[in-house]
Amino acid sequence: MDKEKTIGILGGMGPAATADLFTKIVSLTKADRDNEHIRIYVDNNTRIPDRTQAILFGGEDPLPYMLESAKKLEEMGADCIVMPCNTAHYYYDQLAASVSVPFLNLIEAAAQALPKGSHPGLLATSATARTGIYTEMVKRYGFDLILPDDDYQLLYMAAITDVKAGRVPDKGSFELLLDHLRQKGADIFILGCTEIPLAFEWLDIQDPCIDATVELAKAAIHFCGKKVREIRIH
Q1: Of 59, 119, 145, 215, which is least surrounded by CB within 10 A?
Q2: Which of 80, 193, 209, 224 is catalytic?
Q3: What is the CA radius of gyration of the chain?
Q4: How confident is the model over 20-54, as pLDDT tens digits?
Q5: Catalytic residue from among 80, 85, 209, 224
Q6: pTM
């Protein structure tokens, strides 16, 4: 019998985003019974220091913690590793080089899903936006990324704080942010932080969007040789 491929989730950044990716992999895998699903190893490593604090303000370096998790998942038997944290992809090259199994790139998965001719606006942490990791990736695929101005970025960070604490963000403030990006030309939103799909769901926002977590889940499913179930998740 051929060995079925497995997935390792480098999680904890944050726990809700980790659970969201796990759920989306399960929901999107075309399977009729339990044993047709993919085996998944999860390291919900909540001790990983804050990535935004490290990148922008000189906080504790999260990379050693993430390297430990990546190697642990490989030792557990993961055939590929996925990481449901956009900001943490600032460290992607070091993480991918630390293991001998493929480390799938969430940001590339999102960029590959953009419709031709679209004008994407980015919803992401300040660290993700300022490092340019999304700007560079979407440009590679032929798109120019639209970023919010600093004042509106603060509204976004407030929404992220709410989601991480299990609170529903203020819809009025969130709509101000979306209107700002629409006025700058955005016709589709990249949900470039793994908490934001939860905010869109809780606030019932129906704008066209690319859920980076969904695209990463699909990439992991395809890697494992399974088919993706054609359902809408948002």
Answers
A1: 59
A2: 193
A3: 17
A4: 999 999 999 999 999 999 999 999 999 999 999 99
A5: 85
A6: 0.91
